[in-house]
Amino acid sequence: MLKADLKLEEGVSMASGWGITGNKGRCYDFWMDFSECMSRCREPKDCSLLREDYLECLHHSKEFQRRNRIYKEEQRQIRAAAHKATGGDGDGVPHH
């Protein structure tokens, strides 16, 4: 992670911290941990894991990537099973 990426977060504040139902927002605790770290750290990179947790809470990027990998593997296995059921050996390589 670049230091410049972390610097962007320093001047950014979270909205009110309140969720849509009037309770504390779902990512508020992650934000508070990250914000507290940034206020006391020597180097912004010291807070990179907390920043990562906060951004994951907001955007679910890692979760979506993992779900996509799982889906692709399931589809690969389904294709392999279908190929094997139709007489292929499942590896996609013709053997003569």
From TrEMBL:
Q: Phosphoprotein: present as a keyword of the record?
A: no
Q: Does Mitochondrion count among this protein's keywords? A: yes
GO biological process terms, alphabetically, are:
mitochondrial respiratory chain complex I assembly
User: Where is it located?
Assistant: Mitochondrion inner membrane; Mitochondrion intermembrane space
Subunit comment: Mammalian complex I is composed of 45 different subunits. This is a component of the iron-sulfur (IP) fragment of the enzyme.
PANTHER family hit by this protein: NADH DEHYDROGENASE [UBIQUINONE] IRON-SULFUR PROTEIN 5
Q: What is this protein called?
A: NADH dehydrogenase [ubiquinone] iron-sulfur protein 5
